[in-house]
Specification:
The protein is of the alpha/beta class. The protein folds into three domains: about 130 residues, 2-Layer Sandwich (N Utilization Substance Protein A, Chain:P, domain 4), CATH 3.30.1480.10; about 60 residues, OB fold (Dihydrolipoamide Acetyltransferase, E2P); about 100 residues, K homology (KH) domain (GMP Synthetase, Chain A, domain 3), CATH 3.30.300. About 40% of the residues lie in helices and about 25% in strands. Strands 5-6-7-9-8 form a five-stranded mixed barrel. Strands 1, 2, 3 and 4 form a four-stranded mixed β-sheet that branches. The protein is elongated and about 105 Å long.
Amino acid sequence: MAAQLLEALNQIVKEKGINPDIIFEAIETSLVTACKKNYGNNHNFKVIMNRETGQVECFSQREVVEVVEDEVAQISLEEAKELKHFYEIGDIVDTLVIPKDFGRIAAQTAKQVIVQKFREAERELVYNEVVDKLREVVTGIIQRTDRKNVIISLGKVDALLPPNEQIAGENYEFNKRIKVYVTEVKQTSKGPTVYVSRTHPSLIMRLFEQEVPEVYDGIVEIKNVAREAGQRTKMSVLSHEPNVDAVGACVGPAGSRVNVIISELNGEKIDIINWEADPRSYIESALLPAKVVDVAINEEERIAKVIVPKGQLSLAIGKEGQNARLAAKLTSYKIDIKSDDSFEENYENDRQYESFYQEQEQVMEEYDEEDY
């Protein structure tokens, strides 16, 4: 019987990938519980299962005392020394017992304890696997939609894509493979709950790490990412080797590398610029494709006043202020853009700018640099 039990346990270890010690401990714990059900809770039991043979031994434990007040849990020093001469007050005497046939309730209790331990071990195993993916990109398969949440299978566990982490207008079709960024992993009584995102700026960074060897190896560093998911992203990069072009490495031959990422994000535009230590040059690059005449910096208040050529104000600000808003996020400067012509000559553009600037004030107050 012991050999058959051991063979069954080894099979469970292979199938579930559970640490065998957890299984042995679960059986020992369940048998202790069953013994107490059979003999009473005032008994102290210890069960040891031999890891090599599967043989199980059960011991009744009693504490050595001077005066015995509870014969079930205590033994006198005199009686203990008759068993082994070296026992002292406070020692624990283990006496081998052979439990008789357990009753139905005791056997059911043992079964429940083992099943519960197995479930806990499986949940812990899955949690440990998933938590290693925190702040990483994983590929999953879309399963269903539940109250506007998209459920994505990651293999042993399902992930939750909440509405606020979904790209507006993106179609989440059943059985479609999709890449998501793991934002949070929570351990619950029913197992780990995984939260993922399609809108997080770090999704861009991790996708470039997968597609661009220079980024993965640390030769090219992604300094900042500003993103309006589903529409446009601005990303600044820095090369740590003089002979490596950071922007060129990310774009790839004929745009091959960046196009893979754009395709994964369903056509989201990605602007890649060189990171600059000089804020003037950095802001000028961040406002591309608009040309910049001059940049005045107030470093203390983190405000940049930018002058652009005639006819470039709309391009600098972008549709609904998007270009300037992303540049502000990327550089962490509030950007005040003006044409080199007077406001009177560009009244319509200026109205567009004023609307954008009011929005930018709010965005910059709410925008915190992501922990990449």
